[in-house]
Amino acid sequence: MSKDPNTIKTSEHEINEITIESPKTTEPTDISQILADSHDNILPFHKVIVVFLALASSLFLSFIDQSGLTISLPFIAKELNAQETISWAGTSSLIGQTTFMILFGRFSDIFSRKYVIILSILILALADLSCGFATKSYQFYIFRSFAGIGNGGIMSLSMMITSDIISLEQRGVYQGIMGSFVGLGNIAGPFLSSGFININLENLKCWRYFYYLIAPLLIIDAVLLWVFVPFTHHKQDFTKQLKQIDSWGFLSSSVSIIFFLIPISGGGSTFNWSSPLVISFFIISFISLIVFIIIELNFAKLPMIPIYLFHTKPSLTFLFSHNFFFGISYFGMLYYIPYYLQLIRGYSSIDSSKFLLCLTIPTMISSFIGGYEVSRSKRYWYVIWTGYILWTIGICLLSLWNEHSSIVPIIASLIISGFGVGCIFQPTLIALQAHSFRKDRAVVITIRNMLRGLGGCVGLSVSSTILSNFYIKKLNSSEGFKLFTKSEILNLEREIYTKFSLDLYTSKQIEFLKRIYMESLKNVFYLWIACIIYCLFTNATVRDHGLESIDGEKKSDEETSSNQEKA
């Protein structure tokens, strides 16, 4: 057999290295298509399983890291004396995730998917270890932002590599299984975190053991990926590779995102909305966004975000917008449901984790069933519709929650929402790939994840602002001054995200606090409900043309698989 540099070696059943070398006689006219083609690597079943399990384990650990934080927030706030700013723990992670998410798609196209995902895992491992050693709140927030960078890379690259090695027709099943691993991570994270906390409730440092455990597991997973994941890349000079990076696009987008999210996160609490700092941050963010769009349209050889993706097809545009809006609701539920259970209902961290099972287990089940059904029927439309209808019903049931609710409406809303979430997350990704070109596959995944992360970041920030502002307003009302002294009110404002001690207050004071907490949180629920209702109604614009990308990925994948079988 001749050693043609353009030959993909998977036909010889070797997955150690796949190198695509462009012809020396002609210069490629569409570098994005050349780079995308260099990563196509449909593997036989027995090799898919090995690679897929290595990728799924990465995603599993990533979501353990993200979901475990939600349970430990009150304890972290108390130890680091960060009662007023602890909401930044989640926000900083999502800022890091959202800012760098754009970079992963093109980086993996230019260099290698394998190298980028391993780098992301190592960043997350180092960040988690650093979180365990943090002694100041600002240190913890910085390390969580780096954890967000690592998590963003893992989420994007695991989906990209899955898309590279599995045909679009079969991708529904595997993406569904991937969603199940996400659900498992969301189950394991809270239980691991609460397990360490409950070792000794008096020892505020117990939450640190969670991060000491995750870091070495991530290192082991990085080794597994190094061994089993195929190395694919477009062989060219390293200097040429660096020149293809849209550095000015990345810089302008990063400035726009960061200068937008910081005032959104701190407005009304850390910063005054009318302050010159907040206004100047928004102006810088807007100008940077305009600069980014100009760069992407006119100057970038390999745009970080091709602008045409947002205006060529209404279905694609609305699918992208859905990820932003259901990101607001989904991340909000993960962070604020434990808040409701612990601060308002008085449940322990381990009991809060048990309630979250009602959300995560249905998500895991419906993700697998939905993915299988998409692959079986070659359609995604009715699976996504089912998801939005269920999620709308479940999230509307949150309006029935109060400080004295029985567990029935709580469990019912979580279970119904969970089944809805599982039918949406992975099928919408498949829908996005079916509505886009093969050359944009990696970019579409990163844009989807970035918008979902951005939605989560904006959602957490806006939710925090709504809750804290409404709570402080009620606390400083005439009723509040009748029950508390001025110094007590100031102390309660500082400890808004900390579980208050029942021993310090009378039954009447406790009843008042729980009531205003619940009223404040209900305003947050209404934000989530509005977002999901938007997704439900605008889903009518999405057309289902089957599991075939615009330029015929289905045909290409079938031909590749057929050639490999013959070989």
From TrEMBL:
Source organism superkingdom: Eukaryota
Residues spanning the membrane: 48-65, 85-104, 116-135, 141-161, 173-197, 209-229, 250-271, 277-295, 316-341, 353-374, 381-401, 407-432, 453-472, 525-542
Any GO CC annotation of this UniProt entry: plasma membrane
Single annotated GO MF: transmembrane transporter activity
Alphabetical keyword list: Membrane, Transmembrane, Transmembrane helix
SUPFAM superfamilies per record: MFS general substrate transporter
Membrane topology per record: Multi-pass membrane protein
Domain Major facilitator superfamily (MFS) profile: 51-503
Main location: membrane
PANTHER family attached to this UniProt entry: MAJOR FACILITATOR SUPERFAMILY, MAJOR FACILITATOR SUPERFAMILY (MFS) PROFILE DOMAIN-CONTAINING PROTEIN-RELATED
Recorded family membership: Belongs to the major facilitator superfamily.
Protein name: Transporter
Species of provenance: Wickerhamomyces ciferrii (strain ATCC 14091 / BCRC 22168 / CBS 111 / JCM 3599 / NBRC 0793 / NRRL Y-1031 F-60-10) (Yeast)
Lineage: Eukaryota, Fungi, Dikarya, Ascomycota, Saccharomycotina
